[in-house]
């Protein structure tokens, strides 16, 4: 069978699998790489080369850096300060939230920024008397626009920058994406302000994220503590509520408020059984008892992971509600150093990312366990598994074949028409499958079209980045869109109402504005 036909068949099956949403995207990506090897299209080394690609390692390192900012309370502090300044005005809240998520996205990725701000935005909406849906869809869409503010905004930016180098041109600068990102953020904000009240539906939330900002006060009241709530959760330490499970070795242990746990690193503040205080010299632990423990965050992390107790709210979650924790300065400094290294090109991007990730662990901004857990392995496997498909497109001539067909359709209309056609393909596919996978599929075609037209590949690659970010029409287009679906109570058909004018705007920017900044 012809190699081109095999490659296109693998692509078709992969797209169907992505769209069906019945097979995990990581499995689909791995199946693509394995299929390319099994059919003889690529060697074993080529099929697995994605897992050693610097782009993949850089993307993984950024998740750890993002975790450092979140775990040390930097994100919580930024959210509280900026959103708190907006008061209860709907218009002010929209402006502040959209600008904040756009800036955060540029530093810690779309999904990380939306996930970090989602609970805060819901709480702010409720306190302002607004349906959370009015703020959550703009939150997700502004994050997509913000992903074009800097190299670190999305894996797609990193991928196209590396693709430009491989095509014989130069890499995009760290802030160079902002030349198109700033107009996109401003346009997204203006369109939302003008049309949002009519196009963003008012829905009742089906799932609400918990508001842990007042958690200390709730526990203080439930356990009848005299300690002021601000002294229960702080930068250095906090509290944790645990339950004694059946067969725990702690059953039968005599306890009283104020005593240290057997490890000596935590203090028992209170014990309850069935909602009543367990006190007295003969009080012993039984299955189902709840304990309120106090100690340093590190000690809480360590001892609440013990199988002898079941933690109600992990300390790691509560710690994130504390603005600017003790290692926040380290996290901010590491981020600034990484950005400086990336902006100046002092070292390769992957080295800057890896050193920043290591520094987050060494300064204890994140633990080793947190670092591994923070990495979105689905994203890593998706990118690593789909890179070989791009290789196969170039190696077999499939990209040239598609490019020739595309050029045959547009004729002598010029590179801008070909650019529009490529962007249109990208935005259509991007509503159904991962925008990262979409861009990886279209990049070889774009490179081939640019070479055939004998023009610069830079406007094509930057336009693909913009088109890839225009994933507005469906909740399955990006994880960020899916994150806001439950808390916003959105239906599948709610996204396209505001999403369609934004998509048209992004498509216009990709087609007409991008070539002005990066000429053919």
TrEMBL record:
TM segment ranges: 27-49, 56-78, 93-126, 135-160, 172-195, 329-362, 374-396, 417-445, 457-477, 498-518
Boundaries of every RCK C-terminal domain copy: 227-309
Keyword Nucleus appears in the UniProt entry: no
GO MF, one example: monoatomic cation transmembrane transporter activity
Superkingdom classification of source: Bacteria
Topology class, membrane: Multi-pass membrane protein
Compartmental location: Membrane
GO cellular component terms, A-Z: plasma membrane
The keyword Transmembrane helix is annotated on this UniProt entry: yes
Name of the molecule in the record: Di-and tricarboxylate transporter
Species of the source: Microterricola viridarii
